[in-house]
Amino acid sequence: MELTGARVCITGGGGFVGSHLADRLVDDNEVVVVDHFGNGRREWIPEDATVVEGDLREPSVRREAISERTDVVFHFAADKAVDSDDPNAQFRENTDLTAAVLERMEAVGCQRIAFTSSSTVYGEAPRPTPEDYAPLEPISMYGAAKLAEESLLSVYAHSHGFDVWCFRFANIVGPRLQIGAVIPDFIHKLREDPTELEILGDGRQEKSYMHIDACLDAIEHVVEYADDGVNTYNLGTRTTTSVRRIADIVAEEMGLDPEYDFTGGDRGWVGDVPRMRLSVEKLAATGWTPETSSEDAVRRAVRELLAEE
């Protein structure tokens, strides 16, 4: 699909990934951002975008955001906490929201949707994990919801004529990343107490980190060039970084030398996948390859987040 001159709806467009995408698309497209600003910020949305403020679970909000003129929906809205205090409610809310968005799209004749899924759909899979790995056995309710939402997208592609782009994210980092992710969490903790840093688990958790700029480059490339009914792609890097190494980088960039206090165990929370690296060979076969390492993405993001304050 050509992303020029389109009417684009970005759900969750005031959040981390959505607001950066709005920045990218607003000059060449008509961008509609819908967000209730529970996590996102209105000031992150570019001035030339149309803002629909409200909860997408409300039919009136969906009607205002997704109209007969909408060409494509980038569906980023979700409760994103992988360690939610109420995982059952999170599952229901995220899957019900995606079902409602799809129903509204069908009602107005919009049949193109790009969806942010997650590496959590794989569970604890062999590494690097390709898109066709099976069986998919998520170990968190968040991952289970993402897998269920992918299934809904598949139904609309195969039975309702939709074009679907599904992106299974590694850990995406960069400016505007909020507390709840490891880098801003470490920055916040060290500002509170520069002498000590609590690290969940044993610090050996090893995952792939991708900068938001590279993530959006890949999304735009795949949407423009992949034209199957269902286009599922991993987005990540070929390298990984440990939680302890991230702590080292944050401390280095802040000019600190804290003592580390590990909470113990091989994972940070129930449902945490301690080691993750996605195969990006399918993405590379389309002509786009991640050029930066996981550690480079982390260090750049640390510097950007420190500069925001």
Give a structural overview.
By secondary structure, the chain is α/β, with parallel strands linked by helices. It contains nine helices and 14 strands. The chain has a seven-stranded parallel sheet, sandwiched between helices. A three-stranded mixed sheet has the order 12-9-14. Strands 7-10 form a two-stranded parallel sheet. Helix 3 runs parallel beside helix 4 (141-160). It has helices at 16-25, 59-65, 87-108, 141-160, 182-192, 212-225, 243-254, 281-284, 294-308; strands at residues 7-11, 30-35, 50-53, 72-75, 112-118, 163-169, 171-173, 196-199, 206-207, 209-211, 230-235, 241-242, 259-262, 275-276. 37% of the residues lie in helices and 19% in strands. The protein has two domains: 7-171 and 209-235, NAD(P)-binding Rossmann-like Domain (Rossmann fold), CATH 3.40.50.720; 178-207 and 240-277 and 296-308, UDP-galactose 4-epimerase, domain 1. Strand 1, helix 1 and strand 2 (30-35) form a beta-alpha-beta unit.
